[in-house]
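Data card: per-record layout.
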Amino acid sequence: MAKKKRKRRPAPAGATRTGPAPSAGASAARREKKEAARLQRERAAKAQVRKGAVRRGLIGGLVGLLVFVGISWFTNRAPAAKPYPQSAIDAGLGGHCDDLQTPQSSPTNAHHPAAEITYSQRPATAGDHDPTPLPGQPRTYSTPVVEAQAVHSLEHGSVIMYYRASGEPEGLPKAVVDALGSVATSSPATYLIPYPDLPTGTALAYTAWNKLVTCPKDITPDQATTIANGFVESFACSNNAPEGKNGDGC
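The structure for this 250-residue chain is written out next.
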């Protein structure tokens, strides 16, 4: 008698056939890959944060620099020159002085050694000059100075009063010299200096950068000091000069 074939039992509902279980090595590799991706994302995020911080720092630094430059420019610039006062004009008329002059239309101001410079104007009020200006002191001199250094001081906003010494022909009276000495020592960036080569008929010359008034010897002390004070008020330490804030006492 033939044997009956055994029927195969159907698989339970919902059961699926699966392959072999993953090995421990494959699971570790996947974990390492995920961890590497996570670390890369974190590094990218931190780099973005750092980049933003650097950008903000650069912008902040640039703004601060611009503010500093603006404040420095505003605080260090020379004030505007004031109009030459009528009182000085009247004193000049009374003392038979020449009118206020602007001798050069476009004066240069390059630096050269004094030995290489000559001036056609006497006294010189502008132009190329020695790299070294006059020192801040003294403010009154009994002997002439290097004119190329004096012109540098004019570039720095100084006022210089030149005169023929009292003992010379057409010299300025001592009373006038003494009165102007007081103005020089009490005013910012103002000098009184002898100049024996003033033009004939001139005993006194007031100079600022590219500004000039000349007077004869018969000017009075009051007239002379009024003109001097007018020059100081209008031009000393002002933007009339290219570097008008650099004079001693400005």
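Known properties of this structure: Residues 178 and 221 are 8 Å apart (CA to CA). Confidence is low (pLDDT under 50) at residues 66-75.

See the next section for split statistics.
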